[in-house]
Each structure stands twice: as C-alpha cells, then as structure tokens.
Amino acid sequence: MPNLRHQYFSPVNFVVVITLLLLSACASIQTPQGGPKDTTPPKILSMTPKNQTLNFKDKKIVIEFDEYFNIKDEFKEFSISPDQERAPLLKKRQKRLEITLQDSLEKNTTYTLNFGKSIADVNENNVVKNLSYVFSTGPEIDSLTISGKVTSALTAEVEKEVTVFILPLEKDTLFGKKRPSIYTLTDSSGNYKLNNLRKGKYKIYAVKEASGGGDKIYQQISDEIGFQKEPLTLEKNMENVNLETFKELAPEFRVIERRLNNDGSILLTFNQQLKSPKLTVTDPPAVDADKKVFFNKTNDTAKVWLNDLSFDSVKVAIQDQGKVLQTVNFTRAKKDTYTRDLIASDNLTNGKLNPFQSYTLTFGFPITAADATKVTLLEDSVKRTNFELVKDSIDFLKYHVKFPWKQKRTYELSFAPGAFTAIFNVKNKEFKKTFKLETADSYGTLSLKIEVPDTTKSYIVEFINEKKLPIKSSVINRNSTINFANYPAGKYMVRVVYDDNKNGIWDTGNVKNGVQPEKIWYSTTEMSLRANWEREEKLVIPPPAL
Fold first, then answer.
1. Pick from 35, 416, 472, 516: most CB atoms within 10 A?
2. How far apart, in whole angstroms, are the C-alpha atoms of residue 116 and residue 119?
3. Could you tell me the superkingdom of the organism this chain comes from (predicted)?
4. Quick one: pLDDT band at residue 29, thresholds 50, 70, 90?
C-alpha cells in the first residue's frame, strides 16, 4: 500500500499550496468601496508671494493646494482687475497653480485676481468658491468693501450663487457686452461682499444666469437681472446694498418657437406675455374661419388647429390689442401624414374628486361631439343613468360629467370607443376612470378683511401655495373682504403686488430705462387652512418699502 502521507504532504506540495494561497489572497485585495462622498474643495496650503503683498514686483504667483485639481472654464471664470491687454497664464503643476503675468503692471495700483469657479478637485468636481489673490504695486492695498443681499423680486427668496459685479461709472457702457473683472458670488444665504475696492463711482448689478450660461455677461433673453439705478459713490465701506433679481420683458416681440406638430396642430411660443392676443390666418384666408386657437394662462404660448390641411403653406398673423406684431409662415408637403390619439386627463387628485367641482376631462384636441350613450357610470357597481355630459362653455378642450356624487361611494366611469369626437374626426379609444368623492370636511375657508394704505392706489392680493404659485387673486383699491373658499387644508400665504400702473398684473423692470419691478409684499402671517374650518383674518397692507 502506498504511503499516502508522503505522497500528498511532501515538502514540494506544501510549498505549492502555500504559494497558491498567497496568490489568491493577493488577487482578492481591492480598493475599499463606498464611504462618504467627498464634498470638500481643495484647500490652499500656501501662496507665493503671500496674498496682499505690497510693492509687488514678481512675474509669477504660485498657489499650492492640498490635493490635485483641474482648471475649468478659465476664460469664463478667471479675471484680473484692472484689466490687462495680455491676460495672465494659468498652468497646473502637480498640486500647484502657477499664474504668470504677461503684461506690465501700473504703479501704486491694487490688482485682484478673481478665479470664480475655475478651480475644482479632480474626483468630485468640488469648486473652490470666491478664490481671489490680491497684491499692490505700491505701499497700500485698496481696502473698501461693498456688501449686501440678493433676493428674488417675485418670490422674496434668497438667490444663491448669483454673480454680483460693479463697473466703474465711466465703463458702464460695457454692461452686457464684456465680462466684468470685479465680481463675486452670493453664498447660500444670498449674501455677497466685494473686497479690495478703490474709491470711485460704480454701477452695481446682480446676474442670475440661465442653465448653460456662466460667462457673466447679461443676456436679456435668458438671464435674470438686479440693479440699482443710481451710481454708488464709494468713499467708505458700504453695507446693505441689496439687489432684487427679475426676468426682464423682451423689448421687442419675437416668436421664439414655431412648429407644425406631428398631429397637424401648430405651436407658437412668444418672448412676451400678450395682453389681448389674437391669431388670424391671412393666407389662405378661407382656412381662418374654422380654426381653433388655445392660449395658455400667461398668453405667451398658443396652439392652433386648422380643419383644412390641404394647403402647401399657410401664413398666421399674431396680434395683440389690435396691432399685428408678426406674421409667420408654415409649409407642409402634400404627402405629410399625421398621428392623432385622443387622450384625456382629469381633475382627480390621488383618485379623489373635489366635492366642490364637477368631474372634468381635458383633451388634447378640440372636441366637436360627445355621445352620452357611450358613457357608463357605476356607483358601487350599480349602473346610473341620471348623469349629464356637458361641454365647457369657454374651453373647447374640456367636458364635464355632472352627477350628485356621494360620500363613501366608489365610482367607475367607462368611455366606449367613439364617446368623444375631435377635430380631424379623431375618436377616443376605450378608457376608464375610477374614483371616490373627497369629504367636504377636508377643505377650509379663509375670510380675509383687508385694509389698504392708500385708496388712490391699486393692489393685487394673491392667495398662494407653499410653492408660491397663485391659487386665486383679486384686484382691490379700497378696504375689502376677500373669501378664499373651499380650498384643500394646507399651508398658504398672501402676497400683495403694489399695482402702480393699475393694469392688474405684476410688471417687471427694465435695466436700460432704469425701471425697477413693481414692489411685492409678503404677509408674515401664515394663512393655513384647517380641515372643515372657516378662518377669519385681518390683513393690513403696509405702504410700499422705499
């Protein structure tokens, strides 16, 4: 019999086994996974020469960080003030940032290098915010400051990471044309501070750039702006220089989007909110008679349906208050085909119907006919026939189902194919809706007794939700009582617009003309509605803040 112990446990085999185990262990070593995400931007370890050096004569500045970094959008984010004809060169070497000055420096002048958001770490892209380097070629550094807060003119909320900048009065003509060299970003509380400024007169601005911006040059079509009309005379530190941002109305009307949809409808989007809009098909004129036009609430978008799509081209004139603003042209090929599905949405919330509303269907096409015989209503599985199918008197996209809905019942509405017919003879496919009636005691009512500061003025009183969207608004010019009745229980607020020109809407500002937006006041009292509760409140509107 062979010696098994000698055969399987020889020194050679033992060495092979140990080697395999070691290799296996080495192969299984991995970088630890998970852990908290790095949210810390690179930290500055040193600056050479030191920040705020006097009698500066160097040509190179070195900033050392505690980790590797990238330089992002250098030409958008980095600036030097005063400007130089040949901008400094930025170069990264390991964990050091080297700035080489290419141009000569003026005597007895304070220079500020502003890096904006150009420095960020390699892994998580954490940005070093408001990084700057200051030096003076003379014995003193300009040390004046301007500080304040930036808020939204409409919502009164603080504006984060908004660019605040100043322009010397003699260079204000560069506004909107060239990137400013003296700027900073607001913090998470909307506060800003501009440092190392010299005495002088300045214009100050705040720009909230749209997504995809970042060049710090105001673009009226997309950005929001805040400004102070009068120049700042800087002779000592200035605090509470507050700014309110707003979206400026376009100075000239323009159609910013127009298209012939794949269902045959026409979509038009404008750069202004029109007051009394109207659309007319001017060519071919015969098509105009049967058209259907739907404007959104803000009158800056229109949808048009034409019964006759046999045209090669069609011209549509856009009017406001009786004046033609622009005429647009649409072309189509005779072989064009369209896809149309008649789909409805409704006014249910979480499967429940507001007891103070009728059940409402909203379609994507103008409805031309409805057949109640193709609608089946079940109440707790029992068929009911005493309902009404009613066309909305104003909105041709809506239909109502009226019925004495009851609490604690389950309703099922079934719509057979062809229950509704829309323009182009489009018919619905079968669909069903199941819901219950919300209890009336889930709603509340607010009676608001309002005192105005000046009966010669006009005020827009808006009842707004937590998202600061208006639920209901009323225009008043004297002491009044307004009822906000039967709204879902929840948190609400009241916002008041000082309607200076008495046109019933909030008017925004205009930078070129130095016009600020109409003032808005938010009540500090939360107008919460409790379920099944009628609340009475008194609201004293203060005079507009100066």
1. 516
2. 8
3. Bacteria
4. very low
CATH superfamily of 443-540: Immunoglobulins (2.60.40.10)
Compute, in degrees rounded to 10, the torsion defined by CA atoms 105, 109, 112, 113: 10
Assign residue 156 a region (left: φ > 0; alpha: ψ between -120 and 50; beta: otherwise): left
- Domain 344-438 has what CATH class? mainly beta
Find the DSSP H helices in 57-178.
Answer: 74-77
For residues 236-250, give the mean pLDDT.
96
Four-point Cα dihedral 78, 80, 81, 84, nearest 10: -130
How does residue 223 score in pLDDT terms, banded at 50, 70 and 90?
very high
Handedness of CA 435, 440, 443, 449 (dihedral sign): positive
pLDDT on residue 9: 43
Long-range contacts of 293-302 (CB under 8 A, 24+ apart): 294/366, 294/395, 294/396, 294/397, 298/273, 299/273, 299/274, 299/275, 300/269, 300/270, 300/271, 300/272, 300/273, 300/274, 301/267, 301/268, 301/269, 301/270, 302/267, 302/268, 302/270, 302/277
Q: What is the pTM of this model?
A: 0.79
What is the predicted pLDDT for the residue at 35? Answer: 59
The fold for domain 144-245 equals Immunoglobulin-like (2.60.40)
